[in-house]
Amino acid sequence: MTEGKNPLPKPGSPVRGSQSGQPIMVLFDLLSRRWALGVLWNLSDQNRTFRDLQARCGSASPSVLNTRLKELRAVGLVEKAADGYALSQTGRALFSRLEPLGDWAMKWVPTL
Amino acid sequence: MTEGKNPLPKPGSPVRGSQSGQPIMVLFDLLSRRWALGVLWNLSDQNRTFRDLQARCGSASPSVLNTRLKELRAVGLVEKAADGYALSQTGRALFSRLEPLGDWAMKWVPTL
DNA sequence: TGTATTGCTACTATAATAGTAGCACAATAA
DNA sequence: TTATTGTGCTACTATTATAGTAGCAATACA
């Protein structure tokens, strides 16, 4: 790695040591941060307040949730609305690719 | 949380403080561990050795990679083959739901 | 003028990961 | 037989991320 920290994905730069810089790895890096997927998922059906999200994201501490929300807003997946946080149009596009995981998880998780 | 650590998802128990226990959250918890998505992705086209995976997963340290592989094997997404690690049938089923993210990332990431 | 709710920030403790070294084993070469 | 090389790890320390808790400023409402 040529850089020290990587708090946020930035144009053209790889993220958190993913090195390759392949788009999918950049995306994976973002999504593999704690509660990132959960936030996107919980915003998919309706806008939610900070504390609502917190409640739905299990034990997410406010500091982490806030960090995650900042990141997701910084990359334009989430935005603020009058009634709380919301998925942006881009966020919704991403969610539509995530959605199939829901059905699959419902079938698979019980088999664990 | 009523339990201390949560090294592996177990039947019927929520994971890493996801509390709700919703299948999708259990899955998200698993996938949001470092390099989990990367491993699945890199195994999708061919089997790979430990060191090959390591190289493809950026700076993944062997200890973490090994932990991740153990977890993914424990839940039956990955298995060992003669020529290294491989996606199981279940793993391939999951990957097919993940795959659309690749195309999307290629369009989206450059806009960051 | 309280009182409650919300969106945070700050701080400490713990868990996860990075980074590095190195060992046991198998295959290959000399 | 003895190197030599490559591979799959394990062990250990340093750093980073997250959990868990407290609390404050702002707004809404009573």
CATH secondary-structure class of chain A: Mainly Alpha
What is the mean predicted local confidence, pLDDT of chain A?
86
Percentage of residues in DSSP E strands of chain A: 5-15%
Biggest sheet, spatial arrangement of strands of chain A: 1-2
The greatest interface between two protein chains, and residues involved on each side, is: A-B, 43 and 43 residues
CATH superfamily of chain A, by name, is Winged helix-like DNA-binding domain superfamily/Winged helix DNA-binding domain
Determine the CATH topology of chain A: Arc Repressor Mutant, subunit A
- Give the name of the CATH architecture of chain A: Orthogonal Bundle
As a whole number of angstroms, the C-alpha radius of gyration of chain A is: 15 Å
How many strands appear in the DSSP assignment of chain A?
2
**Overall structural domain count of chain A:** 1
Run of helices and strands of chain A: HHHHEEHH
SS element count, helices of chain A: 6
Low-confidence stretches of chain A: 1-14
Biggest beta sheet attributes of chain A: 2 strands, antiparallel
* Range of helix content of chain A: 40-55%
In brief:
2 copies of one chain form a homodimer. Chain A has 112 residues and is mainly alpha-helical.
